[in-house]
User: Which sequence fits this backbone?
């Protein structure tokens, strides 16, 4: 039996506990991912998808429950310590990169994720050459602009850069938080294609949150539907084959939520 | 012609003074531009450095050691400000004002009185240069070398692995955290280092002016900010080299401007108002241009 790459057991997070506004963001969430699983997380607004991702990344400490990555208990590690295992691409391209720093410097920050940072010179010639090679695979010409500030790039270029930064260190777990939602359809497809290529080539264990049902069906080997902070439906590889958008919505029986899904 | 000859005569003294204040301007730039942490601690850390250094020198401590202790005290003051902001979620400016205000009492307690004369004691300058220490050119050389070392050190640090991660904290804290950078630690060390620079400036200042005074920091922050803005207007901010040079260049130009205005007959009493108005103008300039558009929109609505 292989160890799960990600295992969340009884993950619970309650906001404003004991007040009238009490809200269960995560309510006994259980989920397990095998190595190289590409899991798509769907659910209506407020279902707990973002809380789930934030709990895994360490940004949102759990009230109770356990999280382990590749067999190691990380429940008590804070976000910057967990970064040695996790790479993350944010929805907002402005957040996932440092806009006032250059492309090369952003690549450097990603390469040293979770490693010791010393007083030695950062952007050495060897690193610059390596970053150029990694960026060249995007076919966006970024490899020739290592000294350009990231803030000058378009949203799509920046998300592509974020993706290269995320996969450059072969993370144990990659978190994609609606990372194509802020892009136009053509750019979104480009970024999505790059994502799939990287995930397959590097056999990355990936969690992808999306509102796009087409993406949920087309990509990944596993679908998790969340509602009220729990996993409502889990669809595995066999079952996922040949499933349609309406099938998905049928499975998601809560009526109001189905409406919300259709709308998006 | 008299006006100009008195201005020319003052140039060397002014250069020496502006090089010393460059420490403070570097200390204003670091949190403001690198960490995106607007910080007012300098206003208290500058006299703190002066008071600590002055008190130690009169107690017979070696001036170099006195400067080093002043630096450490400044570092602690800056760390306190950053800690107050991070731990209690108090606005950075307010945290700075709190520390600055409390430092005033601390500075008075350290000195035991408001002013200590240091003319009769050895200073770093008299140790290094002997009897010629009072020439402005000697001071320019010594402080100039020191500031060149500091700027080169900062430039190297900000291009190192550690320094790059500190800059990331200012550029995007979420991204920095996701890359495994401890945002809290980097902020505390960065703001601490900035106040250490300001305190070092204070410790050198008391040794050139020959006394330590509890009120010597009054207005230093706005002077530092004015110098920084002028410097950035000259050097730009596109690269880390330009960003690190801006404080020194700005300080050199700013104090000559002040000296020129004073010799032209600007009343010293009006100086702070003039400086404040200048900083306001420079900060407002980008929005002044835009406001034309705002008026047009309002007129359209009226139609």
Assistant:
């Amino acid at each position: 039996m292989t160890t799960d790459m990600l295992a969340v057991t009884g993950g619970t997070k309650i906001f404003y506990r004991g007040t009238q506004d009490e809200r269960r963001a995560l309510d006994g969430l259980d989920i397990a991912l095998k190595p190289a699983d590409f899991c798509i997380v769907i659910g209506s607004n407020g279902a707990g998808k973002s809380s789930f991702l934030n709990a895994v990344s360490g940004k949102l400490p759990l009230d109770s429950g356990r999280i382990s990555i590749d067999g190691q208990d990380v429940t008590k590690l804070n976000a910057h310590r967990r970064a040695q295992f996790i790479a993350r691409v944010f929805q907002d391209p402005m957040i996932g990169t440092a806009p006032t720093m250059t492309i090369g410097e952003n690549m450097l920050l990603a390469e040293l994720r979770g490693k010791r940072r010393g007083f030695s010179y950062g952007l050495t010639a060897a690193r610059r050459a390596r970053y150029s090679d990694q960026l060249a695979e995007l076919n966006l010409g970024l490899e020739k602009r290592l000294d350009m500030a990231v803030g000058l790039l378009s949203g799509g270029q920046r998300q592509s850069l974020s993706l290269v930064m995320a996969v450059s260190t072969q993370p144990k777990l990659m978190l994609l938080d609606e990372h194509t939602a802020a892009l136009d359809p053509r750019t979104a497809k480009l970024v999505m294609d790059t994502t799939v290529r990287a995930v397959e080539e590097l056999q990355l264990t990936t969690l992808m949150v999306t509102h796009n049902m087409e993406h949920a069906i087309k990509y990944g080997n596993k679908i998790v539907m969340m509602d009220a902070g729990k996993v409502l439906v889990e669809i595995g590889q066999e079952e996922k084959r040949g499933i349609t958008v309406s099938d998905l919505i049928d499975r998601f029986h809560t009526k109001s939520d189905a409406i919300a899904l259709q709308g998006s | 012609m008299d006006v100009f000859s008195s201005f020319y005569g003052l140039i060397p003294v002014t250069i020496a003074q502006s090089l010393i204040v460059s420490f403070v301007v570097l200390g204003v730039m670091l949190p403001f531009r690198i960490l995106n942490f607007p910080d007012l601690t300098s206003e208290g850390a500058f006299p703190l450095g002066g008071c600590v250094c002055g008190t130690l020198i009169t107690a017979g401590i070696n001036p170099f050691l006195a400067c080093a202790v002043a630096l450490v005290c400044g570092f602690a003051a800056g760390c306190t400000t950053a800690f107050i902001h991070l731990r209690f979620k108090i606005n950075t400016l307010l945290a700075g004002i709190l520390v600055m205000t409390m430092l005033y009492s601390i500075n008075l307690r350290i000195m035991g009185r408001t002013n200590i004369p240091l003319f009769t004691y050895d200073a770093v300058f008299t140790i290094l240069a002997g009897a010629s220490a009072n020439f402005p050119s000697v001071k320019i050389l010594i402080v100039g070398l020191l500031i060149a070392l500091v700027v080169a050190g900062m430039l190297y640090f900000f291009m190192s692995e550690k320094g790059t991660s500190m800059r990331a904290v200012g550029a995007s804290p979420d991204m920095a955290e996701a890359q495994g950078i401890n945002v809290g630690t980097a902020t505390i060390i960065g703001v601490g280092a900035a106040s250490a620079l300001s305190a070092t400036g204070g410790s050198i200042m008391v040794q050139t002016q020959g006394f330590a005074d509890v009120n010597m920091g009054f207005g230093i922050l706005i002077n530092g900010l004015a110098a920084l803005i002028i410097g950035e207007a000259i050097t730009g901010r596109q690269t880390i080299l330009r960003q690190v040079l801006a404080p020194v260049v700005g300080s050199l130009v700013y104090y000559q401007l002040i000296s020129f205005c004073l010799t032209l007959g600007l009343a010293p009493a009006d100086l702070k108002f003039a400086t404040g108005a200048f900083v306001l103008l420079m900060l407002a300039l980008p929005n002044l241009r835009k406001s034309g558009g705002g008026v047009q929109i309002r007129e359209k609505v009226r139609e």
Observations:
- The radius of gyration of chain A is 19 Å.
- Chain A has a mean pLDDT of 89.
- Strands of chain A lie at 6-15, 23-33, 38-42, 64-69, 72-73, 86-89, 173-177, 206-209, 222-227, 230-235.
- Residues 35-61+75-263 of chain A form a domain with the Rossmann fold fold (CATH 3.40.50.300).
